[in-house]
Automatic annotation (TrEMBL):
GO molecular function: fatty acid synthase activity
Source species taxonomy: Bacteria, Bacillati, Actinomycetota, Actinomycetes, Micrococcales
Entry GO terms, CC: fatty acid synthase complex
Protein name, entry field: MaoC-like domain-containing protein
Record family assignment: Belongs to the enoyl-CoA hydratase/isomerase family.
Organism: Arthrobacter jiangjiafuii
Domain (MaoC-like) ranges: 182-277
CDD domains: R_hydratase_like (cd03441)
GO BP terms: fatty acid biosynthetic process
Length: 325
């Protein structure tokens, strides 16, 4: 397999999501007035921030919002929230082929290699991969790695403590280099399991998460701002849903784990969600957790996923070929 060399841009600090979204709004306005040909390839670039620090008050606010118990160790969903602005700064580049505003979150795969204490200085690196056609537009994967200093680590960049791969869809954006895929075969009807929890999300759920995470994407803030980007109502952040359910699904004693989530339908606000979180056992021991969230009235499944214990050595070796340098 050929290796793609990525040019590294070192940022002085974790970027402000608010400023990135404002810049994206201005760039979108200019693009509508410009006849210049837009890029169709992903930039051969990675963005990095060294020795970034978690702010304890923001961590505590996040834990309260997603109903996590207070802890000095970072919830896996919070690591994504902390590192996400670095990935967003990549998407805000002039040579990024998809518009930042209005991106729809399709899913995540996260490997959490060990507990991460909030005092550890963290190096965050992000890049983009796998630009592809989608029946509803164009999708892309954003990869983020988080490392912590460790004199014993084989990699001089530090110990890899967290890796996330997020898939996003630019709805309605069809790049000419891709043929539009055919619609998939119809899914079997969803038969909901017995609910183990019920979530009630108010119309302000998107704004509340934005205040904690800094993710002020307009599709989450209000009916009017969401309609301006083609949505019928504002919708819940995918990472709010993922962070909350993964926090419920990960056992307290599990230090290294992998979690996956696929979003099948947006959660328009306000909303009531039924949840099923179910542990699995094999040979008398914990083997993982499955979770599903759905609308009990319409029987529409919104998301489904898993948590599984992680063999950290095998996981780090297995993804070496996917880590671009």
């Amino acid at each position: 397999m050929s290796e793609t060399v990525l040019n590294e841009t070192v940022l002085s600090e974790i970027p402000s999501l608010g400023r990135l979204y404002l810049g994206a709004a201005g760039a979108a306005a200019k693009a509508r007035l410009s006849s210049a040909e837009a890029p169709t390839e992903l930039p051969a670039a990675r963005h990095t921030v060294h020795s970034a620090r978690v702010e304890l008050d923001r961590l505590a606010a996040f834990q309260r919002l997603v109903l996590h118990s207070a802890s000095d160790y970072l919830p896996s969903g919070y690591v994504h929230t902390f590192a996400f602005p670095v990935a967003l700064s990549l998407m805000a580049r002039d040579d990024f082929p998809l518009p930042l505003l209005g991106m729809v979150h399709l899913g995540n795969r996260v490997q959490h290699f060990r507990p991460i204490h909030y005092t550890e200085p963290l190096t965050v690196t992000a890049w983009a991969e796998n630009l592809a056609g989608h029946r509803s537009g164009t999708q892309v994967e954003l990869v983020v790695e988080v490392r912590a200093p460790d004199s014993a680590a084989a990699d001089p960049a530090g110990e890899l403590v967290w890796r996330g791969r997020s898939t996003y869809l630019a709805k309605g954006v069809f790049l000419t280099r891709f043929d539009r895929p055919q619609a998939p075969a119809q899914r079997p009807d969803f038969v909901p399991p017995q609910p183990t929890a019920l979530w009630r999300l108010g119309a302000d759920a998107g704004r509340n998460y934005a205040m904690v995470s800094g993710d002020f994407n307009p599709i989450h803030l209000s009916r009017l701002s969401a309609k301006a980007l083609g949505m019928k109502r504002s919708l819940a952040h995918g990472m709010y849903l993922a962070s909350r359910v993964v926090g419920d699904a990960v056992p307290d004693a599990l230090d290294a784990f992998e979690w996956k989530i696929d979003f099948e339908a947006p959660v328009f606000l306000p909303a009531t969600l039924s949840l099923n979180v179910c542990d699995r056992e094999e040979d008398g021991g914990y083997a993982g957790t499955t979770f599903t969230g759905w609308n009990a009235r319409s029987l529409r499944r919104h998301f489904a996923g898993t948590v599984t214990p992680l063999d950290t050595a095998a996981a780090k070796v297995g993804e070496t070929a996917e880590t671009l340098s």
